[in-house]
Specification:
The protein is an alpha/beta fold and about 375 residues long. Helices cover about 35% and strands about 15% of the residues. The protein contains 14 helices and 14 strands.
Length: about 375
């Protein structure tokens, strides 16, 4: 395993360098459910059943552990399976403070599933540390943060959240899907747990569904998540683990292009007569710009914008030819999303309105196509959307 500290090198060599049995430079796909034991209670090299552990999945889990700088990594069958496993750390009667415009799927599983087991939550502005502290009562056991948030890109102070969690003896959790460890490493700021929808940038090719969890050392979290993963069984399969390892190897070069395209599109849209507002942490006038710059490499590749009155959102989406109207993000192809009816449809309309997730809000995930193609596509769609 490489000891190089350059993340571009670690992406390729940090988690798996070669197969010790054959010398293969790519991790083999161990497509097996079980393993021969030489005698009673004597698993071969520790492998006994692939729900508990699989060499291909283990290589992936080690990779994300190294990239995030954690104690242990865990791979799940989806991002929501990963988030659900983390939520299983808590007991009935516990409460979690959650970023107010959190991903709709996270809201849904909390609101519709875990509340049935008396795990409570409260949506808060995690960008305001004072407000968070005011809401920390004895039943609060965790703070769950997205930074940037989805889809309004609000920024949270990672070091500040970690300090609050330490002060009150609660767990800090960060969804790092938008930034990836290439641009932001929450554990380095004292955060306890990082989660990823690895379906997105880490996989990068819209060809798999996966979730990852990384735990920091010191609170026994690795042992607890390992027990939950094995007990509930929502593990990532060997072939998908292989695909995800392959995707991670090119994360650096892909993210560089994603961000480059995003920055140019933001500049274009910020000056466009059809656009009333752009939400992007890389804009100097954006409210969270300075804070984001202090904890992330750049503004990332995700952004949202609002169409002015007089422009039709439906016509805009129907006119796109390069951007694809679709759920998800982070693939090599550019995707466009309508949060109010897609990613955040599970959030009640009144809450969406309060948060600013309006019907005119559009979220873009620029791919790695030529920038001129992307600008031309948006220009055409904006012109066609004029009422």
């Amino acid at each position: 395993m490489s000891t190089d500290t350059h993340i571009e090198t670690v992406l390729i060599h940090g988690g798996f360098d070669h197969d010790t049995q054959t010398g293969a430079v790519n991790v083999p796909i161990y497509q097996t459910s079980t393993y021969k034991q030489h005698s009673l209670n004597s698993p071969t090299n520790g492998w006994e059943y692939s729900r508990t552990g699989n060499p291909t999945r283990a290589a992936l889990e080690n990779t994300i552990k190294v990239l995030e700088g954690g104690e242990a990594g865990f791979a799940f069958a989806s991002g929501m399976a990963a988030i659900s496993a983390v939520l299983m750390l808590f007991r009935a009667g516990d409460k979690i403070l959650v970023s107010r415009n959190v991903y709709g799927g996270t809201f849904r599983v909390l609101d519709k599933i875990f509340t049935r087991f008396n795990l409570n939550y409260e949506l808060v502005d995690t960008g305001d540390l004072k407000k968070i502290e005011e809401r920390i009562t004895p039943d609060v056991k965790a703070i769950y943060v997205e930074t940037p948030t989805n889809p309004l890109m609000e920024i949270t102070d990672l070091a500040g959240i970690a300090a609050l969690a330490g002060k009150y003896g609660i767990i800090s959790i960060v969804d790092n899907t938008f930034m990836t460890p290439y641009l932001q490493r929450p554990l380095s700021f004292g955060i306890d747990i990082v989660v990823h929808s690895a379906t997105k940038y880490l996989g990068g090719h819209s060809d798999l569904i996966a979730g990852l969890v990384v735990t920091a050392a010191g609170k026994g979290l690795a042992e607890k998540i390992a027990f939950i993963q094995n007990s509930t069984g929502g593990v990532l399969q060997p072939f998908d683990s292989f695909l995800l390892i392959r995707g991670i190897k090119t994360l650096g070069v892909r993210m560089d292009r994603h961000v480059q395209n995003a920055e140019k599109l933001v500049d274009y849209l910020s000056a466009h007569q059809a656009v009333s507002r752009v939400y992007y942490p890389g804009l100097k006038e954006f409210a969270g710009y300075e804070l984001n710059a202090s904890q992330a490499v750049n503004g990332g590749a995700m952004f949202s914008f609002e169409l002015k009155k007089g422009y039709d959102v439906r016509k805009f989406f129907n006119s796109l030819k390069v951007f694809t109207l679709a759920e998800s993000l982070g693939g090599v192809e550019s995707l466009a999303c309508h949060p109010a009816t897609m990613t955040h449809a599970s959030i009640p309309a009144d809450i969406r309105e309060q948060l600013g997730i309006t019907d005119n809000l559009i979220r873009l995930s620029p791919g790695i196509e030529h920038i001129d193609s992307l600008i031309a596509d948006l220009e055409n769609a904006l012109n066609e959307s004029r009422r």
